[in-house]
Amino acid sequence: MSALFSKPPAATVLVVDDEPFIRIVIAEALDGAGHFAIEAENADVAMDLLHADPGIDVLITDMHLLGSFNGQQLATKAYSIIPALKVIFMTGDCVTASRISKHPGPGDGVLVKPFRLEDLLRMVEACLKPL
């Protein structure tokens, strides 16, 4: 299919994780599902990208990030830049996942690592559905 007739991405998704392999696998799955994935290795880089591209639709972030602040703090700061942003948290810690899901605030979903890519893609699609 010609690039001239290619379908625009369903969503622009920022993936933030300090583990390169995780970022790459998630980004490739998102791209394969028709989304446009942008990668950041920490919250500081993610903030730069959020400021540079206010068209980001979904933020997928690990809760425990190296750098200045964690995933929940990143989400709070990201909402101040893009109020309509959807956020999906990832964590390998079941206690953290339980705490996030029980407290209202920034976040549209929580995935406990390891998770299936199909579950991540379903969560992204759910975030994008109009209310």
Automatic annotation (TrEMBL):
Keyword tags: Phosphoprotein
Positions bearing 4-aspartylphosphate: 62
Cited Pfam families: Response_reg
Presence of the UniProt keyword Phosphoprotein in the record: yes
InterPro entries documented for this protein: Bact_response_regulator (IPR050595), CheY-like_superfamily (IPR011006), Sig_transdc_resp-reg_receiver (IPR001789)
Domain (Response regulatory) ranges: 12-128
Protein name: Response regulator
